[in-house]
Amino acid sequence: MTLPVRHRAGSLLGRAFPAGGWNEPAAAEFDELWERMNRLMESAAAAPAGLAWSPAADMRETDDAYVIEAELPGVKRDDIDIEMSDREVRIKGTYKEQEREGVLRRGTRRTGSFEYHAVLPADVKAEEAGATLSDGVLTVTLPKAQAAKPRRIEITGS
Q: Please, are residues 57 and 116 in contact by the beta-carbon 8 Å criterion?
């Protein structure tokens, strides 16, 4: 995993301030936040290989359904499992490492188990849910239950 690089020549507070000056407490908070992010990234990179990773995904709401689009390039349909219970949806699977000839000099692609979990804001018709896998993008469509659809209420005379 490639991590962002931060030059240790000095913190924000150690650099020359712009003509108008910087708010020193804000700069100190930024330095602290940057250090915490670096520790988090380093711990994620050092995580055991057996832990599941989460694919990049978007969940959007239309008038009739919730749609989840997850990026799963190179993952085969048989290696993906989608489960639905109450208002929760889980997309799980395995991205198997490909056999290669020669010596791998650098690798940044994730392999192993992955899992995406989402809690939906309203009930859905689980029996009408559908999923497609096309061009490395898994699209899961979860139709809204009738009670979840917005209903326009007309205002009558006074």
A: yes
Plot region of 86 (φ>0 → left; ψ -120 to 50 → alpha; else → beta): left
pTM: 0.60
Q: How far apart are CA 154 and CA 2, in angstroms?
A: 56
Q: What are phi and psi of 57, to 5 degrees?
A: -150, 150
Name residue, tokens 């188990």: 113
pLDDT tens track for 65-81: 999 999 999 899 999 99
Q: What is the CATH number of the domain that holds 128?
A: 2.60.40.790
Average pLDDT, the chain: 79
Residue whose token pair is 């940057």:
34
- Same domain for 39 and 63? no
Nearby residues of 27 by Cβ (< 8 Å), 6 or more positions away: 11, 12, 13
2 domain residue, yes or no: no
For residues 136 and 102, what is the distance between their CA atoms, to the nearest angstrom? 26
CA Rg value for the chain:
23
